[in-house]
Design a protein that fits this description.
With about 190 residues, the protein is mostly beta strands. The chain has helices at about 85-90, 100-105; strands at about 1-10, 10-15, 20-25, 25-35, 40-50, 55-60, 70-80, 95, 100, 110-120, 125-140, 150-155, 160-170, 170-180, 190. An eleven-stranded antiparallel beta sheet has the order 1-4-5-6-7-10-11-12-13-14-15. Strands 2-3 form a two-stranded antiparallel sheet. A two-stranded antiparallel sheet has the order 8-9.
Length: about 190
């Protein structure tokens, strides 16, 4: 049984292309309890906190020391956090349907809450759960908007259901987008 507690200050991995850099918030505290077995790592609790970031998760990684592809079973919770702090800490990867490089380059801001699980074999596990992003802004707010958009995502395996609401003043404009998006294909319908 292991325990790891640390504080990181001004920690980053800087790349030649600054957009690809992975930058943690100024002060980050990590507390974890885990067990390592012959082929598995079991996380009793991992808690990562900073001023604008609070991530907690538990679960396990199986087959992590074997020649077969690892399998993960993690439960993840994001308490009120800033999405830009999460994006800054990620590597600038681009896979079908997800372009973290573009989110880093064009700056995505917002308050996020999430509760989801990641299960299955890497590199394509299933994600099941909910993400709620309020006051979402890409680069800068729309002129006259009182706040950013509200985004709600419900992940179901390799599909995601979503709702997007954007307000200008106190009047909703652009309607509500609802639909299913395959992580490999994107489509939606507009309902006013």
């Amino acid at each position: 049984k292991g325990e790891f507690i640390t504080q990181l200050k001004s920690c980053s991995i800087n790349m030649q292309d600054p957009i690809k850099s992975m930058i943690l918030p100024q002060d980050v505290e990590i507390k974890s309890k885990f067990n390592i077995f012959s082929n598995n790592i079991i996380f009793d609790n991992i808690d990562v906190k900073s001023q604008n970031l609070h991530v907690a998760f538990d679960g396990k990684i199986s087959n992590c020391f074997s020649k077969t592809k690892p399998s993960i079973d993690l439960n993840v919770r994001l308490d009120k956090s800033r999405i830009e702090d999460i994006i800054d800490a990620l590597p600038a990867f681009k896979i079908e349907g997800i372009d973290v490089y573009a989110l880093k380059k064009y700056r995505f801001y917002g308050d996020v809450l999430a509760n989801f699980s990641i299960q299955g074999r890497l590199p394509e596990p299933n994600i099941v759960g909910d993400f709620y992003i309020d006051n979402a802004i890409l680069i800068k707010p729309i002129e006259g908007a009182s706040k950013g958009a509200t985004l709600k995502f419900n992940f179901v395996g390799k599909q995601v259901n979503f709702d997007v609401e954007k307000r200008k003043g106190d009047i909703c404009y652009g309607g509500k987008l609802s639909g299913n998006v395959g992580l490999r294909r994107c489509g939606y319908h507009h309902g006013g």
